[in-house]
Each structure stands twice: as structure tokens, then as C-alpha cells.
Design the sequence.
């Protein structure tokens, strides 16, 4: 696969980039769903994010890339090995795993290792994509076209953080904590509401309507295709800056204060919109915290809530099938009512 | 169509083939709209002639399976070798060449998504059957669109990635004889291409794209590449304005979604936009298309003082075929149809339709497919034992016994399309059109819960009209109903015919169809549009028995103030569940309907 397009060279699409950065800072946000027109750089942005992320520390020889720092979350294999020897750690790039549309269930969850079974008659587990995505990103392009039974499976695992395999006489459980990133074009089929709700953030991307931006998109794409190495070199500095930004924000994140007033505001906003359950509120607060961390602010304020409201809540509104007001408009209206008129991000 | 227009169309098509051949990595193919026949074969022949001999054209059948498309486990080799052996798929094999997709409009979404992913990333990602690999594959796609006027077009996700959308329908043999270019000239152009840059065109092309309402940025990029390829073809160092105009005409014009407000003044602008009732697609394109022959550079240079984007726009507008916008609106209304997979090759694939519901041990038989990978898995653990029991000469073979057989189970998709056929004639309007609309809206909410698709046919005056093709967008269903005016005659026969036609279409797509007919049953317009009540009634009865023969689940809601015997008889003739509406508010109507529907839908 060729080198990806640099993240910082993507023109516009601020909300999408913001959401991806939030997910990169706080993995517990629960994933990002990117809906949008064709040719708006959805998959480009996700692949670009992958190239940006700083490497992470992992146990050597562990297929699930268990984190040396969090022993209670280790896989069975790491635990067993640690009883005999001290495990070594190494730094590896954050995994970004593509879940292609035609992937079969066995490839996703893992299955009996056919080769070893045939050759040695051994019942061995061959980890699947969910194992490889542990602690990283699972990217599903055209997630709305994914087969239903795979969607069910993803929902289960994404919610529990653990993959349970019971098939072909195998009984395996292993950690599978990943940030689900989906992209899709709503015109090509709707996403089931249950899956949509699992995504922490949801962003909508549109084709830029301003000539200058469009010209810039076309120019940069053309330059990139012409000579990737030169282009990537040109944007390396900016990409490095974004990476440092993420690292700093991650370090700052635990110290960001969430005052009661902000929690109250978040609750008010969710109540006025009538979102189902607490997931919306939690996500809104978390996203605002990550935004504060990215901005270098010490506490969550109205501005952060305002800017993360749309992406945190728009996909959780109870849909009245006969009301054609867009969800985004409804969120923005509620935000304006609560925070007073201003520049909603 | 006049000969000159047809010749010009062919010249443009041939030019597109030449441009693809000049830059096969940048201009990744075309969509050819034409029925199976000479013109299409000629075009493919041209493309083959123009392309370097190493670039293969490879046909992909419409029902291609993922295992052939992407590759997977080579079972014969795996069994022979006793270890997993991967098999390359069509996509990987087609590296450096073009895929030809006949009946592209019938390919299912997931197949096209795989192809689109390879177009985007130049890589085949394989994650199946316990195999994982990435294989480089730089492919192009020639989509052959054979859709009829009333059928769904090729999926927009594919069209968005193809530079040229060419319509060859209606071309005669004499038009397509011209060879136009020679392969050596194209080979020479290919060598020149690397030095040509189209940066200067960027702004003008983007501006034209915006004015034409072409949303995707891909189209602009492809137009610039086409202009560069044109410059290479003509031996120029840089694309000229004429090259740009021609490229924009070829790439952007067929995608135009709006007519630009202020286009350059020229005689072509005097063409009025197509009247709404014009049949459209058979209309000739405006005459300037004939003048913009690829070899004729003089055309646009007559207006040298125009800014480039205006000039490009004028060229493009001239090339927008009349009726295109009309057609676009129709397409657009279908664009948000939730087209999930399983719609392609419907009847043929019916044995394996539905969501896989796992596998179970069992013998394959008619209609039940052996799941080879699961069978192999079941057999694997026993191999050492079985091998030991066998003669050593056969020891490397994998032994599969009958008890290892696993078959795939599928659960039938329960996607239902509810077709509302709503009587908006004068007699019904007086009675309870408003109430019926209210009931339909409540039913729509019900459909939303079950994620059914809905379609709306309205009838009044002399004809039935498809107001809303099957969609999951209930907002649009609501809007189309709200906008339904009342009044006029009751062309019941035409309405039933339209309902049957749509239901058959839905069935062909593999969904089940339910017809909800809301009428007072007082037919007074015959099939031929005449106002003869007797003939209208006999026509309606004939249509009703056709409906019965088609065995479509039907619900007949009598909207007249008092239940009519005639309506009940008609309902019986169509084997429908008959429901006279009591005087009731919309909510209780809906509850009656819901109650009646449950058994009707099995």
C-alpha cells in the first residue's frame, strides 16, 4: 500500500479532523462515525490519522499487543508467561486495522488455525482482526454495507472490550479494546440505529462549497499523486506538530477538571434534546475534556461543550421518522438556546 | 437523432478511449451506457487497440463471488498439499489492466465497494478464510450500463470514480466505423504525458464544476487529467483552453446536476431548458456538440476574450444533452433508496439469499451449499488418526469423510416493501382522502419501526403515477403524499397495473412486496383513458384478476363513506384482504390496518 496522504494537508473538513483528534487523545470516546458525500476525503483522513499516531508500548511476543502498564487487562497468554519470566516491552506503531467488506466471520473473530490443524493435528487459535485491532483502531469503510451478522458481532465486542470465541471446539477469550471508526455514505443504505449509537462521535462531511478550498483540494491531491515522497516531506513538519499536540493532550487529559457547572450544562443540553440514555451525556463530557486538553485549557468550559455538542449528540436524537429537520440543526438550536447565540462550532 | 450528432457522440467516445489509453493510471476507465451490441463492442475494440498490448481487459461476471474477486483459500491445492494455500482473485490478477463489468447496474453493492476500494488504494486487501494479505493492484474499470429507462442506474459510488460517462445508445453501425486515432500516435502521447502539468486549469475547472453542481472533487481532478492527456495527444507542452474545454465537456458535462445560472452568451444558450413533460432522452443534444469534434480546435477559440472558466462553462453547457437534467432528477429521486446488497441477479441467487446463519453438519443437496472451509476445519483435527489408518503412500492427502460435511444456512431476508396505491380521484377526495393520508402516515411510522421500504403510487385523472420509488426515507413518503392533489376520475385499472408492475420489480430485487390499495373502488376511467364507466369497471376487474394471478399480498381499504358491494367484489377478485373503513379517525384506521396486515404478511 502506498504511503497515505498527510493529515495536515487535508483541506477543510475541520469537524471530521477535530473528531479524529479527540478519538486519538481519548480512546475511550467510543469511536467515530464519518458520514458524507462521495469524494470528500473520508477514508483519506482516517488513513492519514493512522500514520500520525505516536508508537505505543507493548509486551514482546503478544499478538494482542498487551500494555505492560495495565497488568489486569492482559491476555491469558501474557499472564501465563509472566509467571515464569519477566516480560519485555517494545514500542510498536498503533495498529490501524481495516475491516474490508468481504471479510468472513472467522477472519474477524479468529478461528481454528487450519494450517496447524492439517499439518500437526493441533487445535490452535489463529487470532483475527479484532485481536490485531486491540488498543488501536478498527476502520470499517462503507460500514453501512457491512453484513448484518458482522455488525452484530462488532457491536458486542466494541461494547464489552473482549472477544469471546466459541467455535470448532475452541474456547478463547482475549482483550479487544479498539476505537471503531466507520465511514459511509448514507445514500447507500442506512446504518442500524443500534450500531450508530455505539459510535461516540458522529460527523458529517460535505464537499467544500467555496472555490478556493476546492481548488486547494484538487491541487494538493494532484501534487500528491505526482510525487508522493516530495509531498509527504513537505508536510512532515506540520504532521509532526499535530503528533506532538496529540501526545501533549494525552498527558494533560487526566488533569483536566470538569466543574459541576459543566456537568450540569451537559445534562441540561441532553435533556432538552431528549437523547436516550446517559451515553450522550458521557460522550459529550469526554469529548469536551479531550477538546480542552487539545486546546491547552485546564478546565472544561462552555466553549468546549458548544464545540463538541453536534458531534456527540446528533446521532442519538430519537428520530421522528416524519420530522425532516436535520439532527444537526436540532442540536445547534438547543445549543443556542442554552448557551445563548454565538458561533457554534 | 441527426447523423451529425451521432457522429459527434462517437467521436467523443473514441476520444475518451484514446485519453484512457494515454493515461490509464490517471483516467481509470469509463461507464458505457448502451445496449449489448455493435457500438459497444466497437468501443471496447478501440480501447483494446489503443491500450498497450500488455494491458488486459478482463470481464467480470455479474454474480462474481467474493472468493473469486478477492481471492481466498485454494481448496484443491490446500487439500492436495495439506496446508493452507491461497488463491489469487480477479482483482489481483487484473493488476495493470481493466475490469469490464457487463450489466454493471446489477452488480451488488459489496462487490462494487471492493472494486472501488482497489481503485482508491491500488491494493487488494484480503482478510478471509483464515488468510490475510495485501496485493498491489492498479486497475481500471469499464462499466457497461445496460439499464433500461425505468431501471436503477449504475451505483453512484462507482460512477464517481470513473472519468468518462459515455452514452452510445442509438448509434448505428455507420456511425461507429471511424477508427479516429492510430495506436502509434497514442503511444507517442503516452511518452509525452509525464511532462505536462495542468495546474493552471485548476481554478477554472473547479469553478465550472461548482457551477454545474458537480459535488465530488474527484470529477475535477479527472477533468484536469483528461486535459493533460489531450495536450499530450495533440503534441502540446501545456493544455490549452481548447483542451480544457474539451476535457470539461467529456468529464464534467455528463455529471451536471444543475444548469448554471449565467452562462456565456452564445447561440447555444437560446435553447430553452427541457420542458418538464418532454420525454428527454431521445432529444438531440444542442448542435454545437457537432462542431466540437476533437480535431476541430477552432470552435471555442472564436471567443478568445472570455475568461477561461466562462469559456469552459459555455463549452460544457453546450454539451449537456437535453433531457439530462430531467433524467438526473429522476435518478436523484432514486439516489437515496437504501440499496442494500442482494439486489443483483436476484432470481439466480435466491438459493443463497439472506443473512448467513452459521453452518451445520449435513450433506449438500439441491439448493444447500457445502461450506468447504468449515468442512475442512471439521476434518482437520482427525487427520493424524486417519492418516495413520491409511497406507503411507496416501499419507499426505487430506482425508475428508462424509461426517465432516458442513453446509451453510441462510436466513431469508425479511425486507418488505409496502406499496401504497392511493386514490386521489374526485370521488375519493370528497370522501376521505385527508383521512386516508393520515392513516398512511401512521402506517409509515409502523414501517419505520420494521425498517420496511415504502413506495407511493397516486392515481387520479386518467393515469396512475409513481410518486415515490421504493425508499426508506419516510420523510419523502410523507412529502409525496402531502403534495398529492385530489380531484379527477378514477383510473383504477391503470392504478392496479402500476401496483403490479412495481411489486414485480420489488420481487425481482429479492424483497417481498405488500400492496395497500386505498380507494372507493368506483372505477370510471378505462385503461385507454376514456371515461366509459362500464369499460372502466371491466378493466378494473381484469386488472384485479391479474393481481390475483401475480399472488401479491394485497390489502384493499375501501375509503367510501359506506362499504360498497362492488368494492368488496373487486377485493375478492384480487384475493385481497378487504377492509371497509368505518368512520374513524386516522389512528383507529391504522390499528385496523395493522391488525389486518399481520396475518396477510404471513
Sequence:
Amino acid at each position: 500500500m502506498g504511503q497515505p496522504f498527510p493529515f495536515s494537508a487535508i483541506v477543510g473538513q475541520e469537524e471530521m479532523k477535530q473528531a479524529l483528534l479527540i478519538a486519538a487523545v481519548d480512546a475511550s470516546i467510543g469511536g467515530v462515525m464519518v458520514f458524507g458525500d462521495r469524494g470528500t476525503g473520508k477514508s483519506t483522513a482516517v488513513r492519514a490519522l493512522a500514520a500520525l499516531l505516536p508508537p505505543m508500548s507493548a509486551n514482546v511476543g503478544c499478538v494482542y499487543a498487551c500494555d505492560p502498564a495495565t497488568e489486569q487487562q492482559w491476555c491469558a497468554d501474557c499472564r501465563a508467561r509472566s509467571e515464569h519470566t519477566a516480560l519485555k516491552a517494545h514500542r510498536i506503531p498503533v495498529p490501524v486495522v481495516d475491516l474490508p467488506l468481504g471479510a468472513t466471520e472467522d477472519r474477524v473473530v479468529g478461528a481454528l488455525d487450519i494450517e496447524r490443524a492439517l499439518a500437526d493435528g493441533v487445535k490452535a487459535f489463529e487470532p483475527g482482526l479484532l485481536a490485531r485491532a486491540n488498543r488501536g483502531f478498527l476502520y470499517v469503510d462503507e460500514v453501512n454495507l457491512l453484513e448484518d451478522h458482522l455488525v452484530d458481532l462488532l457491536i458486542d465486542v466494541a461494547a464489552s472490550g473482549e472477544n469471546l470465541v466459541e467455535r470448532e471446539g475452541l474456547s478463547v477469550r482475549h482483550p479487544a479494546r479498539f476505537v471503531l471508526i466507520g465511514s459511509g455514505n448514507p445514500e447507500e443504505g442506512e446504518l442500524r440505529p443500534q450500531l450508530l449509537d455505539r459510535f461516540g462521535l458522529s460527523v458529517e462531511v460535505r464537499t467544500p462549497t467555496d472555490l478556493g478550498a476546492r481548488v486547494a483540494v484538487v491541487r494538493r491531491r494532484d501534487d500528491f499523486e505526482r510525487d508522493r515522497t516530495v509531498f509527504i516531506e513537505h508536510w512532515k513538519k506540520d504532521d509532526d506538530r499535530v503528533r506532538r499536540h496529540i501526545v501533549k493532550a494525552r498527558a494533560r487529559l487526566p488533569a483536566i477538571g470538569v466543574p459541576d457547572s459543566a456537568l450540569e450544562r451537559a445534562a441540561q443540553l441532553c435533556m432538552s434534546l431528549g437523547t436516550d440514555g446517559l451515553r450522550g451525556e458521557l460522550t459529550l463530557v469526554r469529548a469536551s475534556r479531550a477538546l480542552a486538553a487539545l486546546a491547552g485549557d485546564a478546565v472544561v468550559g462552555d466553549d468546549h461543550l458548544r464545540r463538541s455538542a453536534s458531534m456527540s449528540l446528533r446521532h442519538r436524537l430519537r428520530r421522528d421518522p416524519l420530522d425532516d429537520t436535520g439532527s444537526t440543526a436540532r442540536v445547534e438550536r438547543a445549543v443556542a438556546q442554552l448557551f445563548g447565540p454565538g458561533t457554534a462550532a | 437523432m441527426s447523423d451529425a450528432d451521432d457522429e459527434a457522440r462517437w467521436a467523443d467516445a473514441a476520444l475518451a478511449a484514446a485519453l484512457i489509453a494515454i493515461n490509464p493510471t490517471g483516467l481509470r476507465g469509463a461507464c458505457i451506457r448502451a445496449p449489448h451490441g455493435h457500438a459497444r463492442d466497437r468501443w471496447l475494440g478501440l480501447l483494446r487497440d489503443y491500450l498497450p498490448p500488455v494491458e488486459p481487459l478482463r470481464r467480470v461476471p455479474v454474480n462474481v463471488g467474493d472468493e473469486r474477486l478477492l481471492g481466498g483459500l485454494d481448496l484443491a491445492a490446500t487439500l492436495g498439499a495439506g496446508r493452507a494455500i491461497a488463491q489469487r482473485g480477479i482483482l489481483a490478477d487484473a493488476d495493470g489492466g481493466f475490469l469490464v463489468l457487463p450489466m454493471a447496474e446489477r452488480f451488488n453493492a459489496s462487490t462494487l465497494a471492493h472494486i472501488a476500494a482497489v481503485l482508491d488504494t491500488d491494493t487488494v486487501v484480503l482478510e478471509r478464510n483464515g488468510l490475510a494479505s495485501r496485493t498491489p493492484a492498479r486497475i481500471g474499470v469499464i462499466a457497461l450500463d445496460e439499464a433500461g429507462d425505468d431501471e436503477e442506474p449504475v451505483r453512484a459510488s462507482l460512477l464517481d470514480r470513473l472519468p468518462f460517462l459515455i452514452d452510445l445508445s442509438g448509434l448505428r453501425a455507420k456511425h461507429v466505423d471511424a477508427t479516429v486515432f492510430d495506436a502509434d500516435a497514442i503511444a507517442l502521447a503516452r511518452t509525452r504525458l509525464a511532462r505536462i502539468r495542468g495546474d493552471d486549469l485548476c481554478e477554472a475547472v473547479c469553478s465550472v464544476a461548482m457551477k454545474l453542481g458537480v459535488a465530488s472533487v474527484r470529477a475535477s481532478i479527472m477533468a484536469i487529467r483528461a486535459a493533460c492527456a489531450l495536450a499530450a495527444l495533440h503534441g502540446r507542452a501545456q493544455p490549452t483552453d481548447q483542451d480544457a474545454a474539451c476535457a470539461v465537456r467529456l468529464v464534467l458535462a455528463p455529471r451536471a446536476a444543475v444548469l448554471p445560472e449565467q452562462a456565456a452568451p452564445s447561440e447555444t444558450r437560446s435553447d430553452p431548458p427541457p420542458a418538464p413533460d418532454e420525454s428527454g432522452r431521445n432529444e438531440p443534444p444542442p448542435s454545437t456538440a457537432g462542431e466540437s469534434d476533437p480535431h476541430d480546435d477552432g470552435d471555442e477559440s472564436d471567443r478568445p476574450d472570455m475568461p477561461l472558466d466562462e469559456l469552459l462553462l459555455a463549452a460544457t453547457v453546450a454539451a449537456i444533452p437535453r433531457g439530462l437534467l430531467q433524467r438526473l432528477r429522476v435518478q436523484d429521486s432514486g439516489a437515496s433508496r437504501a440499496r442494500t446488497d442482494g439486489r443483483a441477479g436476484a432470481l439466480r441467487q435466491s438459493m443463497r439469499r439472506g443473512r448467513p446463519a452459521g453452518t451445520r453438519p449435513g450433506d449438500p443437496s439441491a439448493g444447500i451449499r457445502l461450506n468447504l472451509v468449515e468442512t475442512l476445519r471439521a476434518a482437520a483435527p482427525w487427520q493424524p488418526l486417519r492418516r495413520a489408518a491409511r497406507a503411507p503412500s496416501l499419507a499426505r492427502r487430506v482425508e475428508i469423510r462424509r461426517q465432516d460435511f458442513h453446509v451453510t444456512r441462510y436466513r431469508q431476508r425479511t425486507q418488505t416493501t409496502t406499496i401504497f396505491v392511493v386514490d386521489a380521484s374526485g370521488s375519493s377526495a370528497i370522501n376521505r382522502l385527508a383521512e386516508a393520508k393520515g392513516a398512511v402516515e401512521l402506517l409509515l411510522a409502523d414501517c419505520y419501526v420494521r425498517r420496511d421500504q415504502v413506495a407511493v403510487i397516486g392515481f387520479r385523472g386518467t393515469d396512475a403515477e409513481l410518486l415515490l420509488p421504493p425508499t426508506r426515507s419516510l420523510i419523502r413518503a410523507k412529502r409525496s403524499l402531502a403534495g398529492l392533489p385530489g380531484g379527477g376520475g378514477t383510473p383504477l385499472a391503470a392504478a392496479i397495473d402500476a401496483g403490479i408492475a412495481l411489486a414485480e420489480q420489488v420481487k425481482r430485487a429479492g424483497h417481498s412486496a405488500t400492496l395497500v390499495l386505498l380507494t372507493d373502488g368506483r372505477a370510471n376511467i378505462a385503461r385507454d383513458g376514456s371515461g366509459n364507466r362500464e369499460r372502466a369497471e371491466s378493466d378494473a376487474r381484469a386488472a384485479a384478476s391479474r393481481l390475483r394471478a401475480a399472488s401479491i399480498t394485497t390489502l384493499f381499504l375501501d375509503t367510501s363513506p359506506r362499504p360498497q358491494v362492488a368494492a368488496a367484489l373487486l377485493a375478492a377478485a384480487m384475493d385481497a384482504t378487504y377492509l371497509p373503513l368505518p368512520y374513524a379517525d386516522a389512528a383507529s384506521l391504522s390499528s385496523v390496518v395493522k391488525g389486518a396486515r399481520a396475518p396477510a404478511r404471513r
